[in-house]
Each structure stands twice: as C-alpha cells, then as structure tokens.
Specification:
Arc Repressor Mutant, subunit A; mainly alpha; flat; 219 residues
Length: 219
C-alpha cells in the first residue's frame, strides 16, 4: 500500500542515501518511489522531475557543508576552545569527514560549478581562526588556502589509493628491513599499512604550526 503522507525532506533524505551508496546514475524516480513506498506521481509532486531533484540535492549539500564550525574539546563550537591552531585542526577534520562521506554528492556540486560557493563557509571559519592567531592580509589568505588545499589534496590521495588496483609488489614487500640495514625501524614502519587519520592530523598540524608561527612560513 502506498504511503498517504510524505514530506519533501523525506524524499531528499532517501534520494541522498541512494546517491551516496550508488552514485547519481542509480537515482531514478521509480526506484526512489519504491524505497519510500509511495507512487512515482507523489515524488514528482514534492520535488518535480529528476533534474529538479538533483538540483535540490546539490543545494542541500552546499547548505550542509556550510554548517562546518570548529568543535572544541567540551563539544562547543567556534568562539571557545584552546587556541586558533586547535580550532583550525577541528575544521580540517570535519571538512575531511564530510568530503569523504559524500563523494558522489560533492561531485555533483562540482559539476554544477558550485564548488567555490560550497567551500566558502569553511574558508570563512578558517579566516576567523587565522585572524584570531594574528594573521592579516595576504599572509592570512595564503594560510587559509594552504590549509584548504592540504585538506582537499589529502582526501583526493585517499580516494585514489582506495580505488587503485592491488599493488604488486606491495609496500610490505618493498620495505624489507633486511634490505635497509641503515634504518630497520623505518623499513618496518613503511611496510605497515598507512594510517590515514594519523597522517592527516600530523600533516595539518605541522602545516598550521608553521603558518601561524610569529615569523611565518618560509618563502
């Protein structure tokens, strides 16, 4: 039996799940209606045609990305916390999580030429923190862009590694401690699988510390 009540938000929620799991090609009005237990005509009534539905998903993704604010150790938001560096790291972690959690939706935003608008709120959050750290002008702009590029670049590398075919020889085979007698601990560490979360925090923290240092980053 078809559902008698349905909201636009429920339609968008179900559509977003389909796109997240299987990509935009998997989103058909018939499949969406089946997921919601309603008639196709009901879907059209709430969101229009498929192209209008995709536009609505893109707009909602842009809005969701606009909610990025740094979280503090106590669970608060911007305006509290230890220091600007830690709050920047919080923004970076949230942005990475959101980008990784919705790659298909992010790709749709990019295809519609809304990438810069989508990243603007995160940029504004970073600007707030570099200002709090005392940076101004071009130095502040360089810091914001360097941090943003680091986050996005890291996510792209992660995605590429995850989608790449199995490597032969693998890292564990390339880095045999016996073949690197000058530094066996290094070889053993490189033979182990990378820990993306730890490397992300390490790289962003080092970059932020350099950018916010009183003397500024080396030119």
């Amino acid at each position: 039996m078809a559902r008698t009540t349905l909201t636009r938000a429920e339609v968008l929620d179900a559509a977003a799940v389909l796109v997240k799991q299987h990509g935009p090609a998997a989103l058909t009005m018939r499949k969406l209606a089946a997921e919601l237990g309603t008639a196709v005509t009901s879907i059209y009534w709430h969101v229009g045609n498929r192209e209008s539905l995709l536009d609505a998903l893109v707009e909602r993704t842009v809005q969701d990305m606009g909610a990025i604010l740094p979280h503090t150790p106590s669970g608060g938001t911007a305006g509290a916390g230890r220091n600007p560096g830690e709050r920047i790291l919080s923004v970076a972690r949230i942005l990475r999580r959101e980008l990784r959690g919705r790659p298909h939706l992010i790709a749709m935003v990019h295809e519609r030429g809304l990438t810069e608008r989508m990243f603007l709120p995160a940029q504004q959050a970073l600007v707030h923190e570099v200002h709090a750290a005392g940076l101004r002008g071009s130095r502040a702009a360089d810091a914001v862009r360097a941090i943003q590029f680091q986050i996005i670049g890291f996510v792209l590398v992660e995605r590429n590694r995850e989608r790449s075919p199995a490597q032969s020889p693998a890292e564990s085979e390339l880095w045999d401690p016996a073949a690197a007698p000058h530094d066996p601990p290094l070889a053993r560490a490189l033979a182990r699988p990378a820990d993306p979360e730890r490397l992300f925090l390490l790289s962003v923290r080092a970059l932020v510390q350099s950018l916010l240092a009183p003397s500024g980053p080396p030119r």
